[in-house]
Write a structure and sequence with these properties.
The complex is a heterotrimer of chains A (438), B (331) and C (295). Chain A has 438 residues and is of the alpha/beta class. Chain A has 18 helices and 13 strands. In chain A, strand 4 and strand 5 form a beta hairpin. The radius of gyration of chain A is 25 Å and the shape is globular. The termini of chain A are far apart. The relative contact order of chain A is 0.16. Chain B is mainly α and 331 residues long. Chain B folds into two domains: 66 residues, no CATH class; 234 residues, MetI-like fold (Orthogonal Bundle), CATH 1.10.3720.10. A two-stranded antiparallel ribbon of chain B has the order 1-2. Chain C has 295 residues and is mainly alpha-helical. Chain C folds into two domains: 47 residues; 223 residues, MetI-like fold (Orthogonal Bundle), CATH 1.10.3720.10. The longest helix of chain C is centred in the N-terminal third of the chain and has 41 residues. Classes of the chains: A alpha/beta (438), B mainly alpha (331), C mainly alpha (295). Chains in contact: A-B, A-C, B-C. Chains B and C meet through helix 1, helix 2, helix 4, helix 5 and helix 6 of B and helix 1, helix 3, helix 4, helix 5 and helix 11 of C.
């Protein structure tokens, strides 16, 4: 019994610490672990954490960009936190738990959802009074910029707009006696060429060269757009994938994908890799991102085939191509919003000089492309031609639900010939519409 | 790094102090209220569990029930939707039924096979063979390995050109089939998982069975011998009835464990819609997925899972009358 | 038991003996077969861990690695900060084990030796919690820790241990406590010992085998705990080894999976528990069988 009171005394002394450790929580749950550093007093550089998904090599390049920014910045210092594994799950838990970074990279699909939930900082007003080049919203391509906006407010700055182009293998074309792609190509010319270029080259009875290869990339949306259809209407209220135009695009795509008449089958792609097929000269035409190394891989390693770049073929209504974009956003729970904003603008400018293509009209020049990636000099003109037709997706707050329904119930069964586009579009419609509902 | 350890140590000591304080208060204050010393001490001693149950079990279960009727994305307040989540799970979620099928089939197939195998192994070990200890050590080995190790090992073994397929290719050729890609082809996911579980589970269940077998009085076997009975008679009328409580216990725990499978579902990338994935994994993805976490929806799914486990347990108890034999009852 | 016609004992004796020998041989054959089924994958795990990258996918597969790349074991350590991972794992395991064993022992003692109203009902409640799927309490628990500001710390993985979160351990210990004769406690009380003294100096030492069994199981459970770290830890530097392995598996699947590294790390990760097993086999088995047989 005598030991217990002493024990108690220790307890009583420790209890005030419990109160101190609990910490404050806001609606977005921002708290700090007891021993973490507090915000630095003014005059010192504030640490601004940046979360990205970059792998080892890309992180090194990004770090170089960040280092340069840090040397000239006076109020902040950007610290890179790369999380290549399970990035979005980590971000989600971090945001929920109040431990997320100040700046976050988000691919286009994620921004609207988080903005709607109040998780991201609204930077519209700050941008309006900012005269720096990267903050000039008018300079950005509208369809790209709107992925970082919600309800008329801006929540981040896109740092890339990568259009889709057609890479082709001139040698395979020459060998087959088929004229290489040009700006007059349509869907039909493409299909005919693909058929002509899919063959058995070594006479062993098995097809080993393919006209093209699809596997869900390029996005089927691109072809729906080219046929004049939409997957999400402009008012974000409907998903007209059952319109005749949309179905036309879907059918064109499903006719080609995995079809040994035109393209590599799923097994071949699994075995040999997807873009590797093009690089290894097994595929004659390949839809790729403008920034991909497909057209200069052969300069690094002669075993790779030499590929050239062309515009994607025209669809029945237009030549839309998909521009993938991502933005840097600011965590609404950041402790240093001013410095985070300053870092955001500086970072965006820096990345826009590193990645191609910067989503800004003033930076969409051949010089800029060549300066960012010298190996793309010869293709720069083609990339610029592709840009005006580039479009980004329309994003809704429940985008991941919509994507899931679109992929699981429409796209995947369609590619595996489990139903017609018409039937599947009806099957998927309820869940698609549910994802559009507010 | 050290600061992370320190801050957790602090939490830990505070929690320990808090629990100790509660125990002490119960121990000293309850008797003052007229409660018997023994009762007060007993309650004081079980306080850690009572507190834990209240905070980490009872409250979460009730909260989970509440959330299951809401739409809750963590960042905004939960929004009441009534039975909407349940309806959507049962009718509109293309991942749900395939996953139920996979989880339940996995339990239904791997359990009985595993038990039969374990009983067989235990019976072999029970005979007085030389070096029982060594055999036992060996057979238990797979169950000792970390679950993750077993999953990774079998993922490697069951690759399309992995050791398993390569060794069996003569058989495949004979049957005229190609090598099954066990974990990527939706038709072969379940068999692949069953194979993996059989290897891993042999040991622990066998050891339990062995202990059960050792309980069988020799004189019962001798009686069968004297009656002129053979091995099958011994098995059916002596071994099986006496081992049945152990079988039963292992069956229930095994079913529950199988339905609760988690790690394999994450290390092996299962497609929830085609092959289905394990229920707990599906719930986890819904609750913590990036971009649109749906904690309300996930809670509803966990409740459905809980009901399933309850039903299974009840069914096993009910049917136990049919095959469990407790010594002292008539067979 | 069905009645079976008796045969001449004389004739039966001899046929029994050769039957017996035959069945002995049969037993050994089966046991050896089983042993092969167990050992071959284990051998393959080790063999793979020692293979060079280029030899992983050759057909027919190399039975014996050539060349034997011992450096895999060193290289894998560098791909991810596994030293840190191991330190984290050790930290969490030790804290959780300590808390679990102590609190479960206290609670078991309470159930075993003290009468209080509702004791048996509460005990059944405790047992029934064994069937809860972890995920159902995980979501609200996550939210609790979130409001405490403890996401991405080690606290959710260790503090809970103090609340006796192991129903099967409590069950096991209670069984053991109940077998201790009351006279021993009564003698201690007469000597003037209080509850704590009795518990610490008398009861615990008497159930040492059970404690060791639980220690082994607890070590295993915490060393390999996956769901907890997966949900609560977000900073890679805080990962335990199991999450490190998960990240490794995930990152490697982008390119051709480096199975040799993965097998090497799997072997490393399994060593502690295997060592424990070979040293303390008895306790492993003890932990399982008491529950199984008496259930």
């Amino acid at each position: 019994m005598k030991r217990i009171p002493a024990f108690l005394a220790v307890l009583v002394l420790l209890i005030p610490l419990l109160a101190a450790c609990g910490g404050q929580t806001t609606s977005t749950g921002s708290t700090q672990a007891t021993l973490a550093p507090a915000a630095a007093p003014s005059g010192e550089k504030v640490k601004i954490r940046l979360a990205t998904w970059t792998g080892v090599d890309e992180s090194k390049e990004l770090q170089a960009v960040v280092d340069q920014i840090n040397t000239t910045a006076t109020t902040f210092e950007i610290v890179l936190e790369a999380q290549p594994a399970d990035y979005y799950t980590k971000i989600q838990t971090n945001l929920a738990g109040g431990t997320a970074a100040d700046l976050l990279w988000l691919s286009q699909e994620y921004i609207t959802g988080y903005a709607q939930k109040g998780v991201l900082l609204d930077i519209t007003d700050r941008l309006a009074t900012d005269s720096q080049p990267a903050a000039k919203l008018a300079d950005y391509y509208p369809s790209v910029l709107q992925t970082a906006q919600y309800n008329g407010k801006t929540y981040g700055l896109p740092w890339i707009a990568q259009p889709v182009v057609l890479y082709y293998n001139p040698k395979l074309f020459a060998d087959a006696g088929v004229a290489p792609p040009d700006e007059n190509w349509t869907w039909d010319t493409f299909k005919d060429a693909a058929a002509a270029l899919t063959k058995d080259t070594d006479g062993d009875g098995k097809i080993d060269q393919y006209g093209t290869a699809f596997n869900g990339w390029p996005p089927i949306q691109m072809f729906i757009w080219q046929a004049g259809g939409e997957v999400i209407s402009e008012d974000r209220m409907t998903s007209p994938i059952d319109s005749p135009e949309a179905l036309a695009g879907a059918n064109f795509y499903s006719d080609i994908i995995y079809n040994p008449k035109y393209a590599a089958t799923e097994d071949v792609i699994k075995e040999q890799g997807f873009s590797e097929l093009a690089k290894n000269g097994k595929v004659a035409m390949f839809y790729g991102g403008a920034g991909d190394d497909l057209d200069y891989a052969h300069t690094k390693d002669p075993k790779f085939a030499e590929l050239k770049m062309a515009l994607v073929p025209k669809g029945p209504k237009n030549r839309s191509n998909f521009a993938w974009t991502a933005s840097t956003v600011i965590n609404a729970a950041t402790k240093n919003p001013e410095q985070a904003y300053a870092a955001l603008v500086a970072l965006t400018e820096g990345i826009q000089h590193w990645k191609i293509v910067a989503p800004r009209k003033s930076l969409a020049t051949a010089e800029m492309i060549a300066a960012s990636v010298p190996q793309k000099q010869s293709s720069a003109a083609m990339i610029l031609l592709a840009l005006p037709d580039s479009r980004s997706f329309r994003i809704v707050p429940k985008q991941s639900d919509w994507d899931k329904a679109f992929f699981d119930e429409f796209q995947d069964p369609l590619f595996h010939k489990k139903g017609t586009a018409t039937d599947l579009s009806k099957l998927a419609m309820p869940n698609l519409v549910a994802a559009l509902a507010p | 790094m050290l600061q992370w350890y320190l801050s957790t140590l602090l939490d830990y000591m505070l929690a320990a102090a808090g629990i100790a304080l509660v125990m002490f208060l119960v121990y000293t204050l309850l008797p003052r209220l007229g409660v018997k010393r023994e009762t007060a001490t007993g309650i004081a001693l079980i306080m850690p569990w009572l507190l834990g149950f209240a905070i980490w079990t009872a409250y979460p279960i009730i909260a989970s029930l509440y959330y299951s009727f809401t739409d809750y994305n963590v960042f905004q307040a939960p929004r009441w939707v009534g039975l909407d989540n349940y309806v959507r799970i049962l009718t509109q979620d293309p991942s749900f039924w395939p996953s139920i099928k996979l989880t339940l089939l996995y339990g239904a197939i791997s359990l009985p096979l595993g038990l039969a195998g374990a009983l067989g192994v235990a019976m072999l070990l029970a005979r007085n063979v030389r070096g029982t200890g060594i055999w036992r050590t060996l057979y238990y080995l797979p169950a000792v390995l970390p679950g993750v190790a077993v999953v990774l090992l079998w993922q490697w073994l069951l690759g399309t050109n992995g050791l398993f397929n390569v060794t069996l290719s003569p058989i495949y050729n004979l049957l005229g089939i190609g090598r099954p890609s066990w974990f990527t082809d939706e038709r072969f996911v379940l068999p692949g998982l069953v194979i993996m579980s059989l290897w891993g589970v042999f040991g622990s269940n066998a050891v339990i069975m062995l202990a059960g077998l050792k309980n069988i009085p020799i004189h019962l076997y001798e009686a069968v011998d004297m009656d002129g009975g053979g091995s099958w008679t011994k098995f059916r009328h002596v071994t099986l009835p006496i081992v049945s409580p152990t079988l039963f216990y292992t069956l229930i725990l095994g079913i529950i464990a199988a339905v609760k499978t988690f790690e394999p579902g994450l290390f092996i990338k299962l497609n929830p819609r085609t092959s289905g994935t394990f229920l707990q994994v599906l719930i986890y993805s819904n609750a913590f997925a990036g971009g649109n976490s749906k904690m309300g929806y996930a809670s509803a799914m966990s409740w459905i899972m809980l009901v399933i486990i309850l039903v299974l347990t009840l069914l096993t108890f009910r049917s136990s009358a049919a095959f469990v034999f407790y010594e002292g009852e008539r067979s | 038991m069905a009645a079976i016609p008796r045969e001449q004992p004389h004739i039966r004796l001899t046929s029994t003996k050769s039957q017996h020998q035959l069945s002995q041989i049969g037993t050994y054959i089966l046991l050896t077969l089983g042993a092969a089924i167990i050992l071959i994958p284990l051998y393959w795990m080790i063999a793979t861990s020692l293979k060079a990258d280029t030899k992983l996918f050759v057909l027919p597969p190399q039975i014996i690695p050539d060349p034997v790349v011992w450096s895999n074991y060193i290289d894998v350590w560098a791909i991810q900060p596994f030293t840190g991972y191991f330190l984290n794992t050790i930290f969490v395991t030790l804290l959780a084990m300590g808390g679990e064993i102590l609190s479960c022992a206290l609670v078991a003692y309470g159930f075993a030796r003290f009468r209080f109203p509702g004791r048996d009902a509460i005990f059944i409640l405790l047992l029934s919690t064994m069937m809860l799927p972890g995920i159902i309490t995980m979501i609200p628990s996550f939210l609790i820790w979130r409001s405490l500001g403890r996401i991405d710390t080690f606290s959710p993985l260790t503090v809970g241990a103090l609340f006796a979160w192991g129903p099967s351990y409590i069950f096991l210990l209670r069984q053991f406590f109940m077998t201790i004769p009351r006279e021993i406690e009564e003698a201690a009380i007469i000597d003037g010992a209080n509850v704590i003294d009795i518990f610490w100096k008398v009861m615990l030492p008497l159930v040492k085998p059970a404690l060791l069994a639980i220690a082994v199981l607890s070590f295993n459970g915490n060393w390999n705990n996956f769901m907890g770290p997966l949900i609560y830890l977000n900073t890679p530097a805080k990962y335990p080894v199991i999450l490190g392995l998960y990240t490794l598996a995930g990152s490697l699947s982008q390119e051709a999976p480096k199975w040799n590294y993965m097998m090497a790390m799997t072997v490393i990760m399994s060593i502690p528990i295997l060592l424990l097993y070979f040293r303390a086999q008895k306790y492993f088995i003890e932990g399982l069988t008491v529950g199984g047989v008496k259930g």
